[in-house]
Amino acid sequence: MRWQKGALRSYATFSWPLFVAGASSLVIAQSSILVGTKALGLAAVGGIALASSISDYTNKVDQIVTQTLYPAICAVKDRTDLLFESFVKSNRLALMWGLPFGIAVALFASDLVTYGIGERWRPAVGIIAAFGLVAALGHIAFNGDAFFRARGETRPIAVWSFVTMLSFVAFAIPLMLWKGLNGFAAGMGIMALVSLVVRGLYLTKLFDGLQMLRHVARAIAPAVLAVLGVRALVGDGSLAVAVAELALYVAVTVVATWAFERRLLREVLGYLRGRSAAAPAPARGGATR
User: Fold this and answer.
1) 99: which of 38, 59, 163, 216 lies 20 to 30 Å off by Cα?
2) Which pLDDT belongs to residue 188?
3) Distance between CA 241 and CA 252 in Å, rounded?
4) Number of other residues whose CB lies within 10 A of the CB of residue 69
5) pTM (global) more than 0.85
6) Residue 109, C-beta contacts closer than 8 angstroms, at least 6 positions apart
7) DSSP 8-state code for residue 275
8) How do residues 77-116 score in pLDDT, each as one tens digit?
9) More confident site: 282 or 102
10) Alpha-carbon 231 to chain mean position
11) How far is Cα 49 from Cα 12, in angstroms, rounded to an integer?
12) DSSP H or E run through 81
């Protein structure tokens, strides 16, 4: 072992923002449980936990994509063009799963209670729908922190996490005390929007020309419009109607994903088979088309 001048400072500079981010997440998780138990009772906290567990399924693919991609991100951390390409394509892949799933949770929360988990969870419909929307918003530019970590620029992660935590304390907790679970759901929605704005500001500084809204619209608009159109015509129906709406949502999502993203899907399949795609889309064009 030998002393290396500046190493400790380098480690501390990299690590303290990650500590702040972890502490901020801990405050959000624990305060929602503690305040919820004290103000609303154990049953309400059960509703929050249920909604959180359902929305957590949206993060599974994200974790796989980010963990698989991270070594490659580190390898090209000084190549902004390649970082931009990997960021855009990985986010487009995540949007194919996470955004439709989160929106589906919001759309079918009432049906889930009525025909699935039981009417005793009826008070949690609002919070389940809200957590679905929060999870969907969280998928927009979801893995930006991995790119900042790869470049050794972890301060934005701390600022984003801390501001998100402050918005939770400023909105979600007071609204929970005022309006119960529905107020907490509204506060979580505000927190998600604040988080998205802060994350987007930092990422647009890192990646000039970043535009994700078009891909977001592609991921959700066709299926959501189809289901809302059916509900406008049919209204609240039976289990058969709910199943038909869900099948329509899945079918339209699959068709729209293939129509808009088939080139990217073929490229990714080529990578999985051990060969490069024949004609990968340019990074900047892929971000704006």
Assistant:
1) 163
2) 92
3) 16
4) 19
5) no
6) 125, 126, 128, 129, 132
7) S
8) 888 888 888 888 888 887 787 888 888 998 999 999 999 8
9) 102
10) 26
11) 35
12) helix 80-107
